[in-house]
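Reviewers asked in the last cycle whether our approach scales beyond single polypeptides. To address this, we selected a multi-component target totalling 516 residues and predicted its structure end to end. The input consisted of the following lines:
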Amino acid sequence: MSTLVDEPAAPTSTRSPRADAELVAALRAELVDRVGRLVISHPRPEGTLAVALAAGVGVRGVVPIDTAPLARLRGTLIARLIPVVLAGVGLADPFAQAVSAWRVTGPAPALLAHLRALDAEERARLHADVAGHARTLARSLAELAVPEIARVAQRCVIPVVSTPVVLTDALDLVWSTPAGPHLLDVTTSPLGHEAAALRALHAFAWTLRTGRVPRTSASVSTATGEHVTDEVSAATLAGALDLVVAQVTAQLAGDET
Amino acid sequence: MSVDLAYLEPGVVASLLTLDTEPELLPPTLPAALARRLGGPEAGRRQTLGAWSVERRGAPATPFAWSTATARRALGRSALRRLVRGDDGTLGEALAHVLEHRLDRAASGYAGAGSLGAWLAGLDTSGRVTVLGAARAWAVSMLELTRGMATWSVPESDAYYAVERSRVTLRGRRDVVAARSLVCVRAGRPSATAGAGLRVDLLVAGLTHPTGELPAQIVGVWPDAGLALSLRASVADARRGARYVLAAAAAAGVVAAVA
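The resulting structure, written as structure tokens, was:
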């Protein structure tokens, strides 16, 4: 099938598919068990409890829009440029191109209103910011050899079966090689201490979504150009599971107060 | 029959497909019964009902607008058809042909003002490659879901059934046909009423089959959620699908009242 989707050649995985399948099954069972016990011990009103994984490590994009509208806009516009860069379109006017790409995705009305409300000074600053980050984005995606066939903006909306908990996550880029899936998170902030946890959480979410353990999970900063790639292992996923359980615990406790 | 839940993993949709059942036929009286309940001179406004409206108990849909979310399936499905038929060697080539075809239709006036082609024609390069990227992602997800299937095909469109003497059209989703079964792919996560939606898809599949033959099975797949629901089809399920349609029609005000 790899020829059908233009997948580039890559080393074959040394991991056993059976071991991966067993790992995924064990991970799902432990998630359901631990979250199930939490829900029983923290009675709450009926309804879904949405848990945004990135929020657990204090990542942008899950904070209220009013908190930092310019940073939110910059992050959104840079994310919208990813498919443009991957398609090999030249970045003659990154700001205008990002806005064009954003419009076809059905932008959140509140964020769009912020863009329209910018004064000339703020708009010029955002324009310059986006242009700078876009150049770094293009160079980083080339350095990381992200293929054109990579999937952009992949959502995870994962119900924890038999509980009201739904885990949500968004992955900027996913692509497959014969060695397995590769994940990439693009951030417009420097890679802080939370980036490693976020890479693990993305790997966890993709594993639950597809039943396949990613080969790697990476982050790239368009602010600094730095990038970090982690091999995903059983320990990575076990650590992420602990983070998720801690986050669900905190949200359930918050519901009670 | 009950709806069974499965976690998505490589090859799981293929493993869910049943090959050992004889096809059941929709009762010949069912189309007339639907027409009687939904039609007549007092029939209300024109409406398309399907799994989506049934799962939301007839709640009105938001006004339609083209976006990556609404265009990706149409473009991705056309590209997959070309790929599976062998018209193109790669998904990238197939998508390029599909885009070109849509733009040609818009330029020649065959596609109307609100059509996908007209919308694409109005976008600049950045907008178009964003839409194509979303279509590609959708198609790659479909290729992953069909892994392990011996033979499968991509229908040209969803199934539509115009209820006789009424202003109601029923729509049944279908993304892949394999082993006399239908695979329907949805965004987000399955709702509590997802089983009702699958039964409506089953009903419409039977209504649109020349001899009323029901698929052996309906498999609903929610890739975002990593879940699949499978329903081994029966006439009883199709009848339940019809009842859901009537309830949604009443809730939507399509018909004055459904007893």
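Helices of chain A lie at 17-41, 69-86, 94-103, 109-117, 120-143, 194-210, 234-256. We regard this as preliminary and will revisit it once experimental data from Aim 1 are available.
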